[in-house]
Amino acid sequence: SSGGGNGNKSTGDTIKIGLNYELSGGVAAYGQSSRDGILMAFDEINAKGGVLGKKIEPVVMDNSSKADEATSVTTKLVNKEKVVAVLGPATSGAFKATIPAATKRKVPAISSSATADDVTVDKNGVKEYAFKTCFNDAFQGTSMANFASKTLNASKAVILTDNANDYSKGLAKSFKETFTANGGTIVAEEAFVADEKDFNAVLTKIKGMDFDVIYLPAYYEEVGLIIKQARDLGIDKPFLGGDGYDSPELIKIAGASALNNVFFSNHYSSQDTDAKVVEFVENFKAKYGKEPDAFHALGYDLGYFIADAIERAGEADSVKIKEALEQTKDFPAITGVLSIDENHNPVKSITIIELKDGVQSVKEKIEP
Amino acid sequence: MNNILKAKNLKALIGIILIYVIVQALIMVGIVDDYYQILLVMICLNIILSVSLNLITGFTGQFSLGHAGFMAIGAYVCGYITVTVEQEFSFLIGIFAGAIAAALVGILIGIPTLRLKGDYLAIATLGMAEIIRIIILNVEAVGGASGLSIPQYANWTWVYIFTVATIVLIKNFINSTHGRACISIREDEIASEAMGINTTRYKVIAFAIGAFFAGVAGALYSLYFYFIKPDQFGFMKSIDILVIVVLGGLGNIHGSIIASILLATISSYLQEYPELKMVIYALVLIVIMILKNKDMTKFKKFITEKILRRQTAV
Amino acid sequence: MPLLTVKNLTKSFGGLTAVSNVNMNIEKGELVGLIGPNGAGKTTVFNLLTGVYVPSSGTIELNTKGKPVVLNGLKPYKITKAGIARTFQNIRLFKDLTVLDNVRIAIHHEVKYGLVPAFFRLPSFGREEKEIYEKALKLLQIFRLDGKKDELAKNLPYGEQRRLEIARALAANPDLLLLDEPAAGMNPNETAELTELIEWIRKEFNVTILLIEHDMSLVMKICERIYVLDYGMVIANGVPEEIKKNKRVIEAYLGEEILNA
Amino acid sequence: MTQFLQQLINGISLGSIYALIALGYTMVYGIIKLINFAHGDIYMLGAYIGFVCITYLGLGFVPSLIISMILCAVLGILIEKLAYKPLRNAARIAVLITAIGVSLFLEYGTMAIVGPTIRTFPQVFPQSRFEIIDGVVINVTQIYILLVTIVLMILLQYIVRMTRMGKAMRAVSTDQDAARLMGINVDRTISFTFAIGSALAGAAGILVGIYYNSIDPLMGMIPGIKAFVAAVLGGIGIIPGAMLGGISIGVIETFVSGYGSSLYKDAAAYAILILVLIVKPSGLLGKNVREKV
Amino acid sequence: MLEIKNINVYYGVIHALKNISLKVQEGEIVTLIGANGAGKTSTLRTISGLVKPSDGSILLDGKEISGINAQEIVKMGISHVPEGRRIFPDMTVLENLELGAFLRRDKAEIKKDMEKVYERFPVLGRRRKQLAGTLSGGEQQMLAMGRALMSRPKIMLLDEPSMGLAPLLVKEIFEIIQDINSQGTTILLVEQNANMALSIAHRAYVLETGSIVLEGPAKELAQSEDIKKAYLGG
Ligand SMILES: Nc1ncnc2c1ncn2[C@@H]1O[C@H](COP(=O)(O)OP(=O)(O)OP(=O)(O)O)[C@@H](O)[C@H]1O
Ligand SMILES: Nc1ncnc2c1ncn2[C@@H]1O[C@H](COP(=O)(O)OP(=O)(O)OP(=O)(O)O)[C@@H](O)[C@H]1O
Ligand SMILES: [Mg+2]
Ligand SMILES: [Mg+2]
């Protein structure tokens, strides 16, 4: 075989797609959820006859939640397994670390959850073979800041971020910019580190401040504990957040009574009555015995998304697939209709969801 | 004595060049592709890390759980310099700056903490590495939690050169009077001091040299994997290095090299068994540790009984 | 001026005063014994002399080149450089190192080449290493250990380990050699051999020796002078004949007069 | 002032959790000088066993606690027999690496069975909280945890100091061969130590599971390290030291978060640990023994 | 009472005991002498179960005890005062003695025996509450012997009890050994101080590099020219 090259082609009777996910290590939960969603989509597609008349053959590998292993896995997938596309990793850092390896081999790399603004573009412009199907951090942060100032009439906000998490920090940054541009003030910026369970110290500190809302962009594991502990301490102000809140576990951790006055931005609502969403939730429950969370849903969409691109490319050729990906228009995902822009980011609408006694309802829908 | 040394050196030199030439040839014909190159680089970095930790823990007897901290300093100082200076070969300056920064921090932290013994030193070094990581996490100039991207300057050749240099330099050190001074501290600190050895000084020296090469490894890591993030240098990374050192044998440089190769190979095979990867890895680790301890005496007895007895029979 | 002058040396551990107001002079070239009951503070005196413990009060002066150096408060390695070397009551060899390396380590403080020549094997490294090697080998030959230079110290028989410990101490080039119970665990025959060895060392190396020992056959035979400690205090000091007859010493330590040791 | 008191309560309750885990850590260390890295993972398994008992078997708190403690004790003995005993005479660092192996095995073995995502613990205690004085609240579970920790500490101290088994444990900890010569069954004593240590971890797991009501297979890693740090801070091997160290770390972290920046709370805890060790190299309650030469 | 038949002991590659056989009769003091590294300590450690012989047998009152665990052997009436004393330094004198009686449950009798130990070693009586590690060498040796007596042994194995002791104490220790023996405890004594050992023993064995080279009544051996030359410094 020749190194570098002109992309990979699947010539056999299957189409190989690589999955490079965090299946062990610190963020295995995100990686495994994404993988489960993708594999469910592939199963459905294969059951319906596959793509271009060929079955999809997923090649799943673990990167141990380490960026260097992620690089190594993608390199292995594109060079040894000759996959025509690599899905994942789930987190921005690891995903970024794989892009040069995929690009060198001219194979597209797509993540459904690497939200950092700069994963697909850097100062040299757009990265040719990198795509993502989730919101930019900036979009969520800005939307929520506007929601806070305009809908909730908040003027003073406290920001509480997960300091070890670039997603959390990314959202917080854009929230702060927009919120202050809207005339609001940030009373305090506090932080914690993921994997903690006790947030009483920082919440006690916040309790003593004068503010209207708390912006808490983080994942449901911590969010559940924080909201619960905050309500226990007697903080009843609104909590605002992002798509990391979307999980059936949130209500179990925080308890329904704590989940009032909570708003978050999301791709869709899992309580949506849209037939496609309902069908997905039901199929998922049947297959895995639990309710899907955001990573499952985004992964599931990613599975269909890549299949769609291959179909449109007309050939399982990685370069052509990349071209097809760039052309994506109004792809009907369950997490919202999306198109790919010139920066290889998705253009899709954002939904603001309110929790009342833990039950979701759509508060606002914002078009891009 | 000198002649023997020279003959040995010559052989080693030929070996070093031969390995390089063979790998280079395999790269040219495409047998060693990008993936194997990454594997080779990982092995080399692990060799640098484990050999340098071996100097601290294996030879000098100072139980350190903070090697990843020094690696982080090397990686970040080098990464930052490479990104900001942006000139040809600025990365070489970066490597040395990173290594020296790591060594300086090693000295700074080593002087007060090296009075501690055994597990207490281990926990202090662990704390030190965590402090380093937390500080980096909060420095926005190097990207904080979202990490730092660096142009890929290092290639397999560079990494190989530095690996060989590390092994040769550390071996030379160990086989000098300074190295023997370090080893004597491991053997019996009180006796060592009574024999006229400034034990504090040598502990700090060993710590500084170990940190220096950990810094080199960190720098190369940043230059090869072009993306660094604080959580890559956490506590588990220190543990991973320690595992290699103990597996290969405390105070055994060849052991560290072999263990680096072995573990990298095992974990590359295991990438394909995502669900059970760590379970298998853990089991392999436990079993190797037990066998390593157990079979040695049996093995020795076997040799005396079967082989030595045969000798007497002849 | 004596080689070693100890004035009012005291050491307490919490409530216990292990060494109390000890005064001691040792002339150059002497072979002096330090005896006393178990727990009298003999080893503690050695530990104070070698810097393992810091004295609670008192002074220790070593006078090697006509100018006395105050040793209290100095780190052990500095004291070794100043000219005192020792062996330990419980053998403390570098067990997992070779016999040769044990001795080479003790020569360390004479080595001049720095870290850079070590890393890059510069000529000074080769030259000095050769000197160290030759010096170590010579010492081992003297102690009849050269045949075992590549064996690990822990694999030597006990008697040879004791000898190696003395050889190692001598490698540090001391003016004053401290031996802590060199004959412990030896049978009378081995002890007799050791007695000769010690006398011979003194002549051959021109060192002053202070030794702790419970074996009176050895002490009375070779010591020119003896200090007796009890409860940390010097209760007697004199030539063997005087000590043997001293009532307090007999009561506290010897048990009965030793007439013909 | 209100805030200060509230933070103090927060600190003590967080610290009592560290202390609870540190007790088992320190006890095992005290006897066989092994940093049992797997301790945090037994704590995790304790939580999962409690979860199964309460959620799937519908048992109450007390029976679940007992089952969890017993199963953890058995597991502790098993781990010791299979993984540590063959290394009785090996270098301590080799046993440490094995302990790390065991820790990874438990973490990822559990993950392979239950998956990596968190599970939520059902509420067993009424979620009541008191307002001690105006604006200062305390949770019932917090009180439970603190009480349980204190009781267990006293109990452990009693076992080790006063009972026959405790004497055997102390003898084994100083000199195994000499202990054998006294007629002490060293293997059984070590098993007993592991059983108690692991049962404590099991208790901690279920209590903390209830308190924070979310559990996952990697939940033992950070508290495991923190508890280890706490044990060392207090003087490893010393039972009241584990308590003191645990509470100290909890209070330090809380006050650094509450009055400084929470970003540096772990760094501050480690920095204080290092400072304490520099002044007192064997921890707050540790005896500074210099080797007798 | 105690009989060892053809035992071999290896430490890894070292063949420490080569086909050793010896016998101790009830009521005797038997001493085992030999140079450093001859295997004296190894012999005692093998009897008390700390080291497993690779073959051969050890009989106590006709019962096979080789291969039995050390703690079981204590129960059968053998108690071992190890080389270097091996007292528990962080425990008090009292706790050390209590551990000596670890296997016994008869509280009242234990108390009596403890008083007896204090009678025999008055220093220990005065220092009940002192940490054993802070005792002087001689006191530690007495504690080790007192501790061994607490298990009411039929036979006591003593490993170099006079090592490192002041001359006064050496005499005292040997007197105590004779005394213990005269009260009915059989003794197997290992000593470097061969003069003293032979003077109190009934019979003696001489060990050389792992093999027994001589045996006989102690008085006779003490007179033997070979022995004098090799071990008695004469
Ligand atoms: N580090 C220490 N801490 C507490 N006490 C100590 C220490 N070192 C020595 N001692 C005490 O000081 C006293 C003197 O001890 P030392 O070891 O000097 O006695 P010695 O004369 O050498 O006895 P021996 O002949 O038995 O070796 C003893 O009571 C001993 O317990
Ligand atoms: N644990 C061990 N490992 C390896 N070799 C050992 C061990 N214990 C003893 N030996 C070796 O076995 C041989 C016999 O040793 P042993 O201790 O029984 O001798 P000894 O007669 O008691 O000597 P000493 O008079 O020095 O106490 C020696 O060569 C010794 O080095
Ligand atoms: Mg002494
Ligand atoms: Mg012996």
Automatic annotation (TrEMBL), chain B:
Membrane topology: Multi-pass membrane protein
Primary residence: membrane
GO molecular function, one term: branched-chain amino acid transmembrane transporter activity
Keyword Membrane (UniProt): yes
Keywords for this protein: Cell membrane, Membrane, Transmembrane, Transmembrane helix
GO cellular component, one term: plasma membrane
TM annotation in the entry: 12-32, 38-56, 63-83, 89-111, 118-136, 156-174, 204-227, 239-264, 276-292
Keyword Cell membrane appears in the UniProt entry: yes
Highest taxon of the lineage: Bacteria
Subcellular location(s) per record: Cell membrane
Protein known as: Branched-chain amino acid ABC transporter permease
From TrEMBL, chain C:
SUPFAM superfamilies linked: P-loop containing nucleoside triphosphate hydrolases (SSF52540)
UniProt key word Nucleotide-binding: yes
Entry's Gene Ontology BP terms: D-alanine transmembrane transport; L-alanine transport; L-isoleucine import across plasma membrane; L-valine import across plasma membrane
Transmembrane segment boundaries: none
Alphabetized UniProt keyword annotations: ATP-binding, Nucleotide-binding, Transport
Domain ABC transporter: 4-256
Name assigned to this protein: ABC transporter ATP-binding protein
Alphabetized CDD domains for the sequence: ABC_Mj1267_LivG_branched
Molecular-function GO terms, alphabetical: ATP binding; ATP hydrolysis activity; L-isoleucine transmembrane transporter activity; L-phenylalanine transmembrane transporter activity; L-valine transmembrane transporter activity
Pfam families membership: ABC_tran, BCA_ABC_TP_C
Top-level taxonomic group: Bacteria
Cellular component terms per the entry's GO annotation: plasma membrane
InterPro entries for the chain: AAA+_ATPase, ABC_AA/LPS_Transport, ABC_transporter-like_ATP-bd, BCA_ABC_TP_C, P-loop_NTPase
TrEMBL record, chain D:
Transmembrane segments: 12-35, 42-59, 93-116, 136-160, 190-212, 227-255, 267-286
GO-annotated biological processes: D-alanine transmembrane transport; L-alanine transport; L-isoleucine import across plasma membrane
Bilayer topology: Multi-pass membrane protein
Superkingdom, taxonomy of origin: Bacteria
Keywords recorded for this protein, A-Z: Amino-acid transport, Cell inner membrane, Cell membrane, Membrane, Transmembrane, Transmembrane helix, Transport
Entries under InterPro entries matching the protein: ABC_BtuC-like (IPR037294), ABC_transp_permease (IPR001851), BCAA_transport_permease (IPR052157)
GO CC field: plasma membrane
Compartments (UniProt record): Cell membrane
Stored PANTHER family: BRANCHED-CHAIN AMINO ACID TRANSPORT SYSTEM PERMEASE PROTEIN LIVH, HIGH-AFFINITY BRANCHED-CHAIN AMINO ACID TRANSPORT SYSTEM PERMEASE PROTEIN LIVH
The protein's name in its UniProt record: Branched-chain amino acid ABC transporter permease
Source organism phylogeny: Bacteria, Bacillati, Bacillota, Clostridia, Eubacteriales
UniProtKB/TrEMBL annotation, chain E:
Stored SMART domains: AAA
Domain of life: Bacteria
Domain ABC transporter stretches: 2-234
Entry keywords, A to Z: Amino-acid transport, ATP-binding, Nucleotide-binding, Transport
SUPFAM superfamilies: P-loop containing nucleoside triphosphate hydrolases
UniProt GO molecular function: ATP binding; ATP hydrolysis activity; branched-chain amino acid transmembrane transporter activity
GO BP term, example: L-amino acid transport
InterPro entries named among the record's database cross-references: AAA+_ATPase (IPR003593), ABC_branched_ATPase_LivF/BraG (IPR030660), ABC_transporter-like_ATP-bd (IPR003439), ABC_transporter-like_CS (IPR017871), BCAA_Transport_ATP-bd_LivF (IPR052156), P-loop_NTPase (IPR027417)
PROSITE patterns in UniProt: ABC_TRANSPORTER_1, ABC_TRANSPORTER_2
Record carries keyword Methyltransferase: no
Family under the similarity heading: Belongs to the ABC transporter superfamily.
Name of this protein: ABC transporter ATP-binding protein
Gene source species: Clostridium thermosuccinogenes
